[in-house]
Amino acid sequence: MATVDQRWSALPVPYAIELPDRVRKERYFDPDFYRLECELLWPRVWQMACRLEEIPKPHDFVEYEFLDQSIVVLRTDDMGVKAFQNACRHRGVKIVQGRGTCESGFVCPFHGWCYGSDGQNSFVPRRRTFAEHNLYADDLNLVPVRCEVWGGCAWINLDDDAPPLRACLEPAASILDAWKVESLRTEWWYACRLPVNWKLAVEAFVESYHVVEAHPQLVIPTRYGLREGASFDPRAFIDADIQYLRAMSEGMAGMVHANDVRVAESLRSMELPDDPKAAIATWNRTLNDAVTSWHRERGADMPDLNELDAQGLNLEFYQCFPHYFVLPMYSSASSYRFRPLAPEETLMEIWSLTRFPAGDEPPEPTPPETWECDDPRWPPIPTQDFSNLPRQQKGLHAKGFEYMRLSEGMEGHISNLQRTVDGFLAGLPHDELLPALHEVNVYPFDKPIADLGF
Length: 454
Ligand code: FES
Ligand SMILES: [Fe+2]
What we know:
The protein is of the alpha+beta class. It is built from 13 helices and 18 strands. A hairpin with a 3-residue loop joins strand 13 (318-320) and strand 14 (324-329). The longest helix has 22 residues, at 276-297. The radius of gyration is 24 Å and the shape is globular. The two termini are 23 Å apart. The model has no long low-confidence stretch (mean pLDDT 94). It binds FE2/S2 (inorganic) cluster and fe (ii) ion. Fe (ii) ion (FE2) is lined by residues 210, 214-215, 385.
């Protein structure tokens, strides 16, 4: 393995990444570092504000909160999406709480100022009692927020100078378009309060190095490389692969959907060649075809999995920097969103997404109650991940612990992610940050440390 050199100089940021394979512990709890992220990172990035099926009809709205900001995301008459800052222009009261449908607009509950569903102020009670300079029309409307749609979700950005959404999400956006993620719908939606920094939470999911120790039930040779020279039994191989699919299905309550596991079961007795390579290729191709056909026959919008394979896109994990993830497998996907609540507190949401026949989609999803990370209701795989996180956050505070040492071969993504954060904290312009986003919005497992250009 090449040694990590000092090609990358540290940016002028406190606790900056100096050697790219070392991450100082203060980045995960120092209040000033957190404050810098609140000022210079979160207000400058695209954030997934809601899934579109949360606002299926015109005038449906949801409140999206991050840090001390509250945004109203609203479905328009023409089924577009708009967003506003959630603050009355009179004395600042939040116009909405939670979610709902505004029939003809919003009425502030304090003194009754009214706003149309386009955010325009439509009525000020006792208008004549205000001085003229407090009634300039443009100053009375709800403050608009940039809002764009991609991947079945509405996204917001407080930075008017940020590039368009899609430019910031590539290459994940194009890859996940090929997966037809916009046709996925929520089967369940959970939320977890994690007593850890948001980056620690994210980083627990972006490397495969921990799988052997933390998720032993997933270490099945069909997916983790057959031993050189080991004898190969096609029947045992199929059994093991179905066992893996089942472990993924039960472990994540649906990351491999039960429908797809059933399709695999139906192929259990198929004949495979004796040669291991040929057998594995035949099995994968047949399973991909069977899953694709099963969903297409019931009328779901389903990508051709073998086509995705041929294009090298059949990988199960994509990040949309900084806080949104899609993990597609066969017909379905898990999806994560992380939001910082405090330097050492994070809200993580998990969606299980799947495909439904057209016209047979489920009703709008119910927002989850937030569970603690040790809640017994969590499926086995998140339980395993969550059990390590609070211990790690505590361990970081040890006097003798200074920095994380990353495996250059398996944890390069964490370095790329952290140095992208530094790019934002150093206030780099968006055109310099964009190549870093494109480096991070990829399949993260076993990625090398990349030159981000700063
Ligand atoms: S604060 Fe909204 S009407 Fe007064
Ligand atoms: Fe994990």
